[in-house]
Amino acid sequence: MRRISAILMIFSIFLTSACSGPLGQLKPNPVRKRTVVLFLIDGLSVPALQNALATDSMSAFRNHFFQQGNRFNIARAAFPTLTLPNVSSILTGRPIGEQPILGNKMLIQSRVVNFEDPRFRPALARYVDSDTVFETLNRQGKTSASFSFTLGQNATTHTSAGITEAIEYKLHDYDEIDDRLIRSTQNYLESHDPSEWPEFIYIHLIGVDGYMHHLGPNDRRTVQYLQSLSTRLAPVFKKLQEAESHEHDVVTFLTSDHGSVDTPQFADVEEEVRRIHSSATVLNQGRILSVYSEKSDSPEKLQNLLARVRHTRGVDMTVYRDRGGAIRIDSAHSLASIRQNHPFVMENLTAYFNADQHPDAIVLAQDGFTFSNKHRGDHGGLSASEVYVPLLMRNASLSGNEIPRTSDLLRFLQSRHNRL
């Protein structure tokens, strides 16, 4: 009998030591076919899943991932806790700084590039596709399937992205987007014998994130949407389980690209930055502002800006890297307090500011605040609620007590020993 080892990490006592989080101990027969399936539920936080599991409407999740109780593992997203940097890291197996996407928006060669805009999706693919798991499998003569409207278009079988999905998202029609992806996944599994399934199947669902932004992570309708996913995914889970009984190894992961926090308060810090430093380029990404100075600006001009902005309502901290390479954090809180409430903070900031094309500085929002007046729930920052994400597994387990990075998950595909 396969066993899933699960460790419930109490949210108030998350470990804060840096780690790479080895995964392992799947024990397939080397001659058996194996398929790794990754469900990525965009914006799914640890508290949101805990709350949903406390109800009676998550039976499909329980049947597939839990043998008893509602305990589950956690993983850690990269900083910034935004979708496209983290999806890029997950699909390439490379953490922030080792793959080129640092934000949903970036300043590249003096041009603002918004990768969330469908017009820039081809550019995103050019930056990421050649290093993704899909391309690696292609080079090895192996197959993959991607049911996602964001990346994965170079999988052997993939869902084609178009303008329809962008319009539906703008209209908050998240149900239709996710239903289309779930139906496509189910149809694919049912129309192919398990012996024909690829080495890797990827499903990226966006509705939880959409409702979280629009209504807040704790809103009744957001929770109900998550609960509805359990029902809609039940036929997919059933098909995966049936394949296990046909001498086929199926490893299932379910995780998220980032967590989220409730943000009932809006602070227009972007406008304040522009007022103080009119020549700066400011990219607003929810709970993080990326600030790029003009090349002709002195370091003192940037430092003066940050000193003034730090005391603005809604600002938790400002961060920049000085000319000596040191990370400088300005906050009302002590470094010890920052470390306690922002897990892996120095590791995350160092990786971010060591990356190519990083901004000159960042401004991070206080708890309960966002810099976007359209979002009742948001993410992008360094808090535990944004960094930690659920990690559900079937036919796999964690080795040790370390918290894995989400970018480590697909190392399962790299070794038949299934250890990270």
Q: Which strand-content bin applies to the residues?
A: 15-25%
Largest sheet: number of strands, sense, barrel closure? 7 strands, mixed
Helicity, as a percent range:
25-40%
Radius of gyration: 21 Å
Q: Please report the number of helical segments.
A: 14
Gross morphology is: globular
Tags for this entry?
disordered N terminus, alpha/beta, 5-stranded antiparallel beta sheet, 420 residues, 14 helices, globular, 7-stranded mixed beta sheet
Describe the protein's architecture and organization.
Helix 1 (46-53) crosses helix 9 (220-244). The longest helix is centred in the middle third of the chain and has 25 residues, at 220-244. The model is unreliable at 1-30 (pLDDT under 50). Strand 12 (281-284) and strand 13 form a beta hairpin. Strands 3-19-9-2-8-6-7 form a seven-stranded mixed sheet, sandwiched between helices. The chain has a five-stranded antiparallel sheet with strand order 12-13-16-14-15, sandwiched between helices. It has 420 residues and is of the alpha/beta class. The protein has helices at residues 46-53, 59-65, 83-92, 121-128, 133-139, 163-170, 174-191, 207-215, 220-244, 269-276, 299-309, 335-341, 345-354, 384-387; strands at 23-24, 33-41, 73-76, 105-108, 111-114, 144-147, 157-158, 200-205, 248-255, 261-262, 265-266, 281-284, 288-292, 315-321, 327-331, 361-365, 369-370, 377-378, 388-394, 397-398.
Short synopsis of the structure:
With 420 residues, the chain is an alpha/beta fold.
